[in-house]
Design goal:
The complex is a heterotrimer of chains A (about 100), B (about 300) and C (about 375).
Chain A (H helix, E strand, L loop, with lengths): L13 E2 L16 E5 L9 H5 L5 E4 L2 E5 L9 H5 L7 E5 L3
Antiparallel strand pairs in A: 2-5, 3-4
Chain B lengths: L1 E2 L2 E2 L17 H13 L3 E5 L3 H5 L12 E3 L5 H14 L6 E7 H6 L2 H9 L5 E6 L36 H6 L5 E5 L4 H12 L5 E6 L3 H4 L6 H10 L6 E4 L3 E4 L9 H5 L12 H26 L13
Parallel strand pairs in B: 3-4, 3-5, 5-6, 6-8, 7-8
Antiparallel strand pairs in B: 1-2, 7-9, 9-10
Chain C lengths: L2 E6 H11 L4 E4 L6 H12 L6 E4 L3 H13 L4 E5 L1 H16 L5 E6 L13 H4 L7 E4 L3 H18 L3 E6 L7 E6 L2 H7 L16 E2 L8 H30 L7 E3 L6 E5 L3 H14 L4 E5 L2 E3 L3 H8 L4 E6 L9 H9 L9 E5 L9 H13 L7 E2 L5
Parallel strand pairs in C: 2-3, 2-4, 4-5, 5-7, 6-7, 11-12, 11-14, 14-15, 15-16
Antiparallel strand pairs in C: 1-8, 6-13, 10-12
Classes of the chains: A alpha+beta (about 100), B alpha/beta (about 300), C alpha/beta (about 375).
Chain lengths: ~100, ~300, ~375
């Protein structure tokens, strides 16, 4: 990313326009990643609800996976997945 | 999204790519807060973890405008924003002051008291992680008795009780004070939606565990917050107009405070001094009994307190 | 129609804020500023000014409220003095860094301890490096005018501005002040149109963390705007003079044309210097006065233009930078460093803590100045030795 010159940077250190944090990839912070077993998943959405990183993907009422570009691997999704279901496991990241 | 019998707005106003630590409930708190408030919102953020979380000068993670301000000024900057918006015909915008416990319990208290006393039409929310986490886990007046921090080392841990800020705010006779935690999102969102409709100074005390600061794995933060509620370390309640107390939830089973403490490295040393744990238990019980008494005074009964097992 | 009213300097400021149609006022009481905001709260209560008045619990909060309001795109105003200004210090940096065109009146008052409520410039000059423009006014008319002018300049260059008036000598002394026709003021100072503002639907982030790879550019921008402000002040002052029949400048010379000796002054004591210079001129002494109306941005060019080629210059300072010299003295000396041939400049400290500055004092300073052979950087006038 090319850094802006003083003329291009707005007064008061403002970021105008739409929120753009999605461009910043936090996925590489991860040491373990969530993996979901769709045979077990009941789409209760607790993992989605508790994700601090807005990284559990959902579409039409169904969980569809994880945003690995941004998921930091905190493990909350696996932890809050109901004990009788346990559809999510945390797997060590291989490089 | 319909969760059992309640609806969670799908709209995400906290975007991915923010830079909170793994498992940060301060981040989840914002996500839930903005699900409740929507986007007709402006936020003032003083020095706190959120100074960093929302992104540096090149990135912005929120779908609402944010004004970063000095440590002690969240309440008054929000007041100023509200006044400015009102003068520009945008007085229907919810202005939110969003601060950490240091900026609220300590350095920001004077401005909060001023804004509360004038009943400014803003929402003040403190995401309380019980120490100065952004500067590296120093003790604040929100740090609980017995806790380790980098300025209250294990050899001489915090020896004072956590400041009872909610009571201080209630003493200002403001329309609404609530305690919430992202671990109980239904309760959290219900209160946000309720507060949104109230005019005047509204205060949220958000219990927001911090895995690195509390010395626990990142996946424990929701668990820790649930245990804090279940053990009554952090009761969920509301105070309306400084006098109407409502306890919103009581876990139907007794959970020992130790279950909450042993989850966290910051309390590890306490298990060598059982009398200190006893002291904590006494304080927790005292506080709970007081709240029950106030609830009873308000409602004439305690039967209306919700006592269900939501989550294990 | 414009009309004349006998007003104290403070009330002239209140009228100035009213004419400027400020939208959010936030203040905390401190002598000798208080009557500015007392009158403003009355004007707002009577509905003569459409504004929100926020009674805060400290000056720090007064400035913070102005910052929030200005960030939301409203015209914001506050007033303070001495300890209050010092308490605001952190937020003065904030206002300038966030590029908010807030205007504040500071009634110059000496810093404690020991307690003093009388005039001295150390309070405002201690805020030198905060990024605020500073205008030192001499009369109540100027106090009124410079609220309006300050907003015009501030909103053009996106930097906050402070007008500075002396405790009691101006703040509590009455003079006739011309209050202008509102339509004319509106023509000179149209409503504030913010370049960026905190408002719903525009998810901007304002002042987030700037790493070493961006911070310096933001500082450079402020400096550029300050430099540009010199020109903007001169242009807007010229327009103001034409519209309202004034004769202001970024600095203001008096009997300077053929002056061999120049006395540099600022604030209310300038009127005393003016009278003394006038009398000395009648005695045949070739002396002039240069009034430093503007302190930030520092008017280098004009200072060099007016002081070059003089035999000697005396700079009067109602302030002191401990361990250094008078503050105006240092600034003027540094501005004149590059001028050849070197102009001998002498620094006089006087009138601290509201001690009277008389015509006799100024005449004695002149007598002292012409006798001095070695440059004296710090001469204490009137201190009991």
């Amino acid at each position: 990313m090319k850094l802006k010159s003083w003329k291009e940077l707005p007064e008061g250190a403002i970021i105008p326009g739409a929120p753009n944090s999605g461009e910043f990839k936090t996925g590489d912070w991860r040491t373990q990643k969530p993996v979901i077993d769709f045979d077990k998943c009941t789409h209760c959405h607790l993992c989605w609800l508790y994700c601090p990183d807005t990284s559990v993907l959902t579409k039409n009422g169904k969980i569809t996976g994880f945003d690995y570009d941004h998921c930091k691997g905190c493990g909350i999704c696996a932890e809050v997945c109901p004990p009788r279901i346990k559809a999510i496991t945390m797997v060590k990241e291989e490089i | 999204m319909i969760m059992r019998n309640w609806t969670v707005p799908m709209e995400e106003n906290l975007l991915e790519g923010h830079v909170a630590c793994q498992g940060c409930l301060g981040a989840l708190a914002m996500r839930l807060m903005l699900k409740g408030l929507g986007t007709n919102v402006a936020i003032a953020i003083p020095a706190c973890c959120w100074t960093i979380i929302s992104g540096d000068v090149l990135y912005h993670a929120l779908k609402v405008p944010v004004f970063h301000t000095a440590f002690e000024t969240a309440a008054i900057t929000a007041t100023g924003i509200k006044a400015g918006l009102t003068m520009r015909g945008k007085g229907d915008t919810t202005v939110l002051a969003w601060a950490g416990d240091g900026g609220t319990f300590d350095i920001g208290l004077q401005a909060i008291s001023g804004a509360a006393e004038r009943n400014e039409d803003i929402i003040y929310a403190v995401y309380d992680n019980e120490a100065y986490m952004n500067t590296g886990i120093q003790r604040s007046s929100a740090t609980p008795y017995g806790a380790w921090t980098t300025t209250t080392p294990a050899k001489r841990p915090e020896d004072k009780p956590k400041k009872d800020l909610v009571e201080i705010l209630a003493a200002h006779r403001i329309p609404y004070v609530a305690t919430v935690t992202p671990a109980y999102p239904e309760d959290f969102l219900r209160k946000v939606e309720k507060a949104k409709k109230i005019k005047g100074f509204r205060f949220f005390h958000i219990f927001a565990p911090c895995p690195p600061g509390w010395k626990m794995p990142s996946d424990y933060s929701v668990k820790a917050a649930r245990l804090a509620v279940q053990t009554k370390v952090f009761p969920l309640f509301e105070i309306e107009n400084g006098e109407r107390y409502t306890i919103n939830y009581e876990y139907p089973k007794d959970v020992p405070v130790e279950d909450y403490l042993k989850l966290q490295g910051r309390f590890k040393h306490l298990f060598k001094t059982p009398e200190k744990i006893e002291h904590i238990k006494e304080q927790v019980k005292k506080r709970w009994d007081y709240l029950v008494m106030r609830h009873k005074l308000t409602h004439g009964t305690t039967d209306n307190i919700i006592r269900k097992v939501f989550y294990k | 129609m414009s009309f004349k009213k006998v007003l104290t300097g403070n009330h002239a400021v209140s009228y100035g804020a009213t004419s400027a149609r400020v939208q959010v006022i936030s203040a905390y009481p401190i002598t000798p500023q208080t009557t500015i905001v007392e009158l403003l709260s009355e004007i707002v209560a009577e509905g003569k000014l459409d504004a929100i008045f926020v009674n805060v619990e400290s000056e720090h909060s007064a400035m913070s409220a102005c910052i929030g309001a200005s960030a939301a795109g409203a015209r914001a105003f506050t007033a303070t003095s001495a300890q209050g200004l010092a308490l605001m210090h952190e937020m003065l940096h904030w206002a300038a860094g966030a590029r908010l065109p807030i205007v504040m009146a500071n009634v110059n008052r000496a810093m404690a301890p020991p307690w003093s409520i009388w005039t001295e410039q150390n309070d405002s000059l201690s805020q030198r490096d905060t990024g605020w423009m500073q205008f030192y006014v001499e009369s109540n008319q100027e106090a009124y005018d410079y609220v309006i002018l300050a907003y015009k300049v501030a909103e053009k260059v996106l930097l906050p501005a402070m007008l500075v008036l002396d405790a009691f000598v101006l703040s509590h002394t009455s003079e006739p002040v011309e209050i202008y026709d509102q339509d004319k003021v509106d023509e000179f100072l149209p409503p504030y149109e913010p370049k960026y503002a905190i408002e719903p639907g525009k998810p901007i982030s304002y002042g987030a963390l700037s790493k070493p790879d961006t911070y310096m550019e933001f500082r450079y921008k402020i400096q550029r705007s300050m430099e540009e402000a010199v020109k903007v002040i001169e242009e807007e002052t010229a327009k103001f003079n034409e519209m309202f029949g004034r004769n202001y400048g970024i600095v203001e010379p008096y009997m300077m044309d053929d002056a061999d000796y120049v006395i540099v002054s600022s604030g209310a004591m300038t009127s005393t210097v003016r009278a003394a210079v006038h009398e000395m001129r009648e005695e045949g002494k070739k002396v002039g006065l240069l009034k430093m109306k503007t302190f930030r941005p520092f008017p280098f060019e004009k200072v060099r233009e007016y002081l070059s080629g003089r035999k000697k210059v005396a700079v009067l300072d109602r302030n002191i930078s401990f361990g250094h010299h008078g503050i105006f003295y240092e600034e003027i000396k540094s501005a004149m460093y590059s001028v050849e041939p070197r102009v001998p400049i002498h620094g006089y400290i006087l009138g601290l803590g509201g001690r009277d500055v008389t015509k006799q004092d100024i005449k004695e300073i002149y007598d002292d100045l012409i006798k001095r052979e070695e440059i004296s950087e710090i001469i204490w006038k009137g201190v009991k030795l």
